[in-house]
Specification:
Layout (H helix, E strand, L loop, with lengths): L1 H13 L5 E9 L4 H6 L4 H10 L6 E6 L14 E11 L3 H7 L2 E2 L1
Antiparallel strand pairs: 1-3, 1-4, 2-3
Length: 104
């Protein structure tokens, strides 16, 4: 019985969760769903939208995109000049990838 308990404890301790994964998403001018819901593109609105919709992440930041060499336009679905960066676990990354994020 003690051996069985020992084996179960070792098995439990040897299980490792997926390592963190960094994902990026090039924002549009204003066509994301958080803009529709909150009429705002600030980081708090973005975090609130992801939280309200069950996305799990450890960190979410916004940074200026480097020279990405795309044409500039002002329609809502045109690329913007900011990148959303998310750190999430491998098991939670699928939803972000389905949304349009890519692995950095």
């Amino acid at each position: 019985m003690r051996n069985l308990l020992f084996v179960l404890v070792l098995t439990f301790l040897s299980c490792e969760s997926d390592p963190p994964l960094e994902l990026v998403y090039l924002r549009t001018q204003c066509s994301e769903p958080w803009y529709d819901e909150f009429q705002n593109n600030d980081i708090e609105s973005i975090k609130q939208w992801f939280d309200n919709n069950g996305y799990v992440y450890q960190e979410l930041t916004i940074s200026q995109a480097a020279d990405i060499g795309i044409a500039v336009c002002q329609a809502c679905n045109c690329p913007g000049d900011e990148i959303i960066q998310v750190i999430t676990s491998g098991e939670d990354s699928d939803r972000f990838l389905d949304y349009g994020f890519t692995v950095k």
